[in-house]
């Protein structure tokens, strides 16, 4: 069996090392297979808290083939083998029967040329839940509770690493609803490491995989910088 941690490798090879139902939850955002290899220039004006507007250049990503093909049935079969429950983003794009609940992430970016929401499969129930959190470049939400309000201080915004990056706050909202401290989580396509940062803050033991070396290097630096900051729970557990 493999150790816990974050690894630069193919998730299909990694999952083979774990027994059935080893993980309490799988939180995954695999490629959707839309073949959007080139990122458009999405520069835009961002409104500041004082009412002024500044131009914000779009991000540049130094990776390719991030959305080449959606995973095949063998991927989903393996995910369902190693985990007891699953949250899988992009379920509306996959040719695989994912019967269960849905989580709709409303990005609060009406009027843009990007998707206004993303949908995740949720194995915990059969209902549809909505999480509203603004997420469009520099226009990021203040908090999950105030997701439709733009964060005033842009210096607090998360730095973008991948085109399909999701915010830490979104993952924290999901993990806070469906997990407890000490549970085991797997993410097969880590990308920016937002999911692992959220898992760390929620007290979960995690295994994450990222096959792209350039993405892995950047996200590992981000994860290491975050986990180096001792939380109050770390202090309490060591006392």
How would you write the strand order of the largest sheet? 1-12-11-2-5-7-6-8
What proportion strand? 15-25%
Shape: globular
Unreliable stretches covering 5 or more consecutive residues: 38-42
What profile does the largest beta sheet have? 8 strands, mixed
What is the count of helical runs?
6
Distance between the termini: 30 Å
- Topology as H/E string? EHEEEHEEEEEEHEHEHH
Rounded to an integer, what's the Rg over CA atoms? 18 Å
Count every beta strand, where a strand is a DSSP E run of 2 or more residues.
12
Rounded average pLDDT: 86
Taken together, the total number of domains comes to 1
CATH class identity: Alpha Beta
> What is the third-level CATH name, the topology?
Rossmann fold
Query: Strand pairing plus helix content: what structural class?
Result: alpha/beta
User: What is the percent of helical residues?
Assistant: 10-25%
CATH architecture term: 3-Layer(aba) Sandwich
